[in-house]
Amino acid sequence: MTNDPSDQDDKREDDAEHASGAEKNDEENVSKKSEQEQIAQAHSPEEHAESSEKEATSIGPSRLLTLSLGALGVSYGDIGTSPLYALRECFKGSSHLAPSNANVIGILSLIFWALILVVSTKYMMFVTRANNNGEGGMLALVALLNPWRRDAGRHSALLLKLGVFGSALLYGSFMLTPAISVSSAVEGLNVATSIFKPYVIPITIVILIALFAIQSRGTETVGKFFGPVMILWFVTLGTLGIYGILHEPRVLAAINPWHALEFFVRNHWTGFVVLGAVFLVVTGGEAMYADMGHFGRRPIQIAWFGLVLPALLLNYYGQGAMLIHAHGVSAKQPFYELAPGWALYPLVVLATAATVIASQAVISGAFSLTRQAVQLGQLPPMRLFQTSSEEYGQIYVPTLNWLLMLATIGLVLGFRTSTNLAWAYGVGISFAMTITTCLAFFIMRERWKWPLWVALSLTLGFLAVDLPFFGANLLKIPNGGWFPVATAVLVYTLMSTWRRGRELLRERLVEDEPVPLDEFIEDLATDDTVRVKGTAIFLTGSDAGTPPMLLHHLEHNQVLHEHVLLLTVRTEDVPRIPAADRLEIDGLGQGVYRVFARYGFMQNPNVPVAVRLCERFGLDFDTDKATYYIGRATVIPTDEVPGMMLWREKLFAFMSRNAIQPTSYYRVPPDRVIEFGLRVEI
After folding, report:
1. Measured between alpha carbons, how far is 69 from 228 in angstroms, rounded to an integer?
2. Are 125 and 304 in contact (CB under 8 A)?
3. Which of 228, 263, 315, 332 is nearest to 102 (CA)?
4. Is the dihedral of CA 169, 381, 375, 358 positive or negative?
5. How far apart are the C-alpha atoms of 90 and 111, rounded to whole Å?
6. What is the spatial distance between Cα 197 and Cα 203, in angstroms, rounded to a whole number?
7. Considering Cα of 535, then 537, then 543, then 545, what sign does the dihedral take?
8. DSSP code for 135
9. pTM, full prediction
10. Helix (H, G, I), strand (E, B), or coil: what is residue 54?
11. What number is the average pLDDT over the span 484-509?
12. Terminus-to-terminus CA distance in the chain, angstroms?
C-alpha cells in the first residue's frame, strides 16, 4: 500500500518466500540467480520504517478507491449481512417484544447509536489507530503491547491471557457466521412460498459444503468478484431502505437518542434483554478491525462512511418503516418484506451471494488468525499454503478448514433455523469487544503515553456501551450462547497448554546444555576434531549454550563440517520483517556462525531462502548442498518434574506428536535433513 520502490522490492522478495509454499517443490525450483537478484534489490531497514499513516497518505486517489472497494468484499461482509436477521430478532426472539410504533422507533434509535458509538467511534476513529504496522486484530494488538518482553511489568501475564482468550472467542464466531448468514438468506424462500420449507436446511448445507470445498483453490480469482457483488448488495440495501422510509418518513425521528432512553424506561427488563438482539448489528466490527491489514486504515474508513454505514442505516430504518406501515405483521421477515413481489427471488439470490462472501471473509480471517497464533507460539505448527503471491492474507489451512466445515454443518443441523442460531451468536463477540477495550487502555498508557485521566475516561466511556451489550448476551447462554463460550474455553486450553509446554520444554533443554558456546569454540581451536568439506546447518530454538544436536553429532560421528551455521528462527511482534532486515549473523570463529532469521507473525518462515541471503554477508558456501540437522524432542509427561498438571502435559505431548514436522514447516528439503531424537521429561 505504498509507492515507495524500496517497499516494493522487499515485498517482491517476501512474496517469493510466501509463494513457494503454494506449489509443490517450488523451493527446489527457485534458481540461485533469481535469489541473488532478489537480494540485490533489498534495501536498508530504515527505508521500511514508515508508519501506516504515512503509507496511507502516499496512496493515489485511484489506488485508494480500489482498496476501498476491495474492503467492501472482505472487511464488511459480516456486518453487511446483519440486516437479514438483526431487526427481526429484536421482535422475534424470546423477549416477545410487540412491534408497536413506539418500540420500533426505540429499537431503530438503539441501532443507530450502536453503529455510531461502537463501530464509527470506537473502532473507526480510535481502535484502528492501535495497529501493529498496519495490522489489526486481537493478537496484533497483544503483540503491539509486547507482553513477552522482560520489562513488561506485573500486568503482562494478564494482557497475554486476555488477548489469547479474546482470540479464542473469535473461533466460535468463525463457525457461527457462515451458519447464520447462509441460513437467513436461504430462509427468504419461505416468504414467497412454503414449498421450499423442507429444503432450506439441505440447500444451506450444500452451499456450505461447496464453500469450504473451494478453499484449497484460494480466493484470488473469486475475490475479484467480491467487491462488485458487495457494491450491488449495499446499493440494494440502501435502495430498499429508501423505498420503505418513503412509506413512513417518521422513522427518521429515531436519530434522536431520547427515543432509545424512552424505550428502556417503557420496557424495563425486556428492554435490556433486547440489547442482545440489537448487538447483532455491530457483530462485524471486530472482524473489520482484524482485516484492516489487507487494505489499511483509510480505505477501511472510506468504505464505511462512504457506503456501508449509510446503506445499513437506510435499510434498518426502511425495515422499521415497513413494520410501522404494516402494523407489525412483517416482523417474521422484515428484510424480505421490503422488496416488491417480483424482486423477491433475485433478492434471495443476491443475499445468498452476499452471505457466501461474508462467510468467505470469516473463513479467511480464521486462517489468518491461526497463522498469527502459530507464529506467536500460541498453537503448534500446522500445514498451511499460501494461495496467492500478491495477498498475504490469502492462505489455506486444511485441518482448520475441515474442522470449521464440520462444526458449521453441525450448527445448522442442531439449531435448525437462523433464529435459533441468533441465540448462540453474539456472546463471544461481545466479550471479545470488551477485551479489545481493556487492551486499548494499555495501548493508550504504554504506547501512546496518554495521561491516566484521558485514557481512563475513554475506556470507561467505551465500557459503558460494551458491558450492557455483553450482559444482555450472557442471557443467551442457556439457549445456545454456551457454544461460543465452550469453543473459546477449548481453544484457550489448547493455546495455553501449548505455550506453557513450550516454555517447560525450553527450560528442560537449557538445563541439558552444559557447555557454553564460547568454550565450545575455544575447544575447536585446540582439539583435533576432524573437519570435512561442506556446510552443516543446525536448527536450534535457543541461543543459549551449545545446541545438544551439535554435541551429539560430534560425540557419535567424530567429525565436523568446514562451515557450521547455528540457525535460530525468530518470530517478532511485528506483522512483517523486510528482506533487508531478515538476518543477523555473528561470526564465532573456527568456521562457526550464529545466524538469526527474523520473521513477522504474518509471514511464513522459509529457511532455505534465508540461508541463501547469507551470501550478502560474505559467507561463501554452496547452500544447495548443505546438510540440515534438526532435533526432534519426544515429550515424556511425568509427575516427578514440576510444571503443568499431568493431563495438560499429556495434552501437550499429543499436540507435539501431531504437529507438522520442522522440515515441512521451515520448508527444508527432506532429502538433506538429519534428525536427532531427544527424550525430554516435563
Report:
1. 8
2. no
3. 263
4. negative
5. 10
6. 10
7. negative
8. B
9. 0.79
10. helix
11. 89
12. 46
Of 243, 237, 247, 239, nearest to 324 (Cα)? Answer: 247
Q: What angle do CA 441, 445, 446 make, to 5 degrees?
A: 115
Residue 149 · residue 297 · CB < 8 Å: no
Length of the chain measured in residues: 682
Cell of 469: 451489550
655 burial level (CB within 10 Å; 0-12, 13-18, 19+): middle
Cα 167 to Cα 288: distance, rounded to the nearest angstrom: 14
Share of the chain above pLDDT 70, in %: 85
Quick one: how far is CA 68 from the chain centroid?
Answer: 20
| Phi, psi dihedrals of residue 680, rounded to the nearest 5° | -125, 125
Mean pLDDT rounded to a whole number for the chain: 81
Lowest-confidence range among 225-229, 294-298, 301-305, 510-514? Answer: 510-514
CB 164 within 8 A of CB 496: yes
pLDDT band at 388; cut points 50, 70, 90: low
CA distance 596 to 610: 9
- Give the helix/strand (H/E) hosting 630: strand 627-636
In whole angstroms, what is the distance from residue 58 CA to residue 38 CA?
Answer: 24
Question: How confident is the model at residue 461, as a pLDDT?
Answer: 94
Helix, strand or coil for residue 591? coil
Q: Do strands 673-681 and 627-636 pair parallel, antiparallel, or not at all (unpaired)?
A: parallel
- 3-class state of residue 34 by DSSP: helix
Give the separation between CA 202 and CA 183, rounded to whole angstroms.
10
pLDDT digits (tens, 9 = 90+) for 329-340: 556 788 988 888
Cα–Cα nearest to 634, from 666, 674, 670, 681: 681
Q: How far is CA 307 from CA 79, 85, 127, 471, 631, in A?
A: 13, 20, 20, 31, 54
Residue 532, beta-bridge partner list: 561
Query: Average pLDDT of 400-425?
Result: 90
Residue among 136, 34, 20 nearest 75 (CA): 136
- Given a contact cutoff of 8 angstroms between Cβ atoms, the answer to whether 56 and 1 are in contact is yes
Q: How far is CA 292 from the centre of its chain?
A: 10
3 state DSSP class of 578: coil
Say yes or no to pLDDT of 564 above 80. yes
The three cell numbers of residue 576 are: 512483517
Name 575's bridge partners.
none
Distance CA 280, CA 150 (A): 40
Q: Helix 452-474 crosses helix 269-278 at what angle (to 10 degrees)?
A: 100
Q: Are 363 and 215 in contact (CB under 8 A)?
A: yes
| pLDDT of 392 above 60 | no
With residue 321 as reference, give the H or E element that holds it: helix 309-325
